[in-house]
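Subject: sequence -> structure tokens, single chain

Hey, anyone have a minute? Need the predicted structure for the following. Not urgent.
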Amino acid sequence: MTLDADALTKEDQGWYKGITRYQWVVLIIASLGWVFDVFEGQIFVASMNEAMPSLTSAEQASKVPLFNNIALGAFLLGGALGGILFGMVSDRIGRTRTMSITILFYSVFTCVSAFSQAWWHMAIFRFLVALGVGGEWAIASAMVYEVFPKRARAHVGGIFHASSVFGTYLAVAAGYFLIGSDAVAQWAASLDISWVDSETIPWRLGFAMGVIPAVLIIWIRLSLREPDEWKTARQQADAGTGQKLGSLGELFSSPFIKKTLVGVSLSTIGLATFWGAHIYGKNVFKEAAVTERVTAQASESDQSADQIRTRILNNEKSTVKGWEMLGMLITTTGGGLGLICFGPLCQHLGRVRTFMLYHLGGFVIALIIFQVPLTTTSLYVLLPVFGFLTLGMHAGYAIYFPEMFPTRIRGTGTGFCFNAGRIIAAPILFSMGWLQSTFDVGLFGVASGLSFLYLLGALVLLAAPETKGQPDVL
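Reply:
Had a minute. Here:
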């Protein structure tokens, strides 16, 4: 009688024992790709309050929330198409080659976004950036799953997705040191240029930084090889002894359709609430800080509270931007902890129960954040919890989705589940932007409404299959 090597080591050593140098390299490269992947998405979040108003006319000022949501929705749609397309491509031509293509795609078009001259230019470029962003995640998560032993997959899946916080940190740094910097603004104003408004140069520089990840392609091509699981599946397919690689239709066959629908539903809820609620934790902190500054100055001024607020927003832009970026930093830090903790939690509780914990907790904390008047002091405590629950569940997608599909359609299935969610989430964001601009529904009201999707996620989880401790899907 023989025992699986994972079974022999499960009890007497940590998940990280026996991991080879090459496996660590795979995790590092995949994580770096995801870091820059997230930066390309979050740089718009960090600059949207400056970029979009500068790309619209005075007559269009009331439509800025709509244009922002169109850009966010275009990003989701592009990510969906890229994730599905490149997921299929990776199953057919290999993980490493396809990863290089996706990173080149998002690097180039983020840089090109710096040259936008109208709001719809930005929306188109966000769509093109997202083609690479959506593809990179599906490929990297599948590759990490295939390279690491089973006992380590939940942990490394959580670590892989948790690396995303560094991408947000980079966007926060760009927002604080470039986009919101008085020194950079003064330097830009001193330039003798006519083809672009100098006031827009700070946010344009933030997007121009997006070309840097292209350098990662060199390391990928020199260091990575195709996973043995994929090579075996490819050989079997070529020899006619295995099934076709990258078949999208197989996801809807009887063995996989339930898993596909569960995966798509979970990602739809996670992505809609991320782009429609989670990212606005920074706005809650900014508004609390501004309100406290207004209250402090009201007793010493003859101006009304509205006049004081307007003066602060117009004359203390770098300070207000600092508050916004601090809120983003606090929320993201909590989110990073939530991502890291998802792996160990799902090893103890199971995948489905851990998802349930995050969804129900996310619903409660989101309503508190967006509906209860809070001070900055209380937000130092509550925003990390908000980030922990509303972002942390995303680590589960990198752990759970690859476990539901066999090697021959793992990139396709993982990419489809995550990115079909983007297609469904996009019109949700479009409608939220329309509500804001047409019926004057406040941003926090919209975010509160979206938080009810977490309850829908809890219902979906009642039908979700548990994959913890199950054999690999064939």
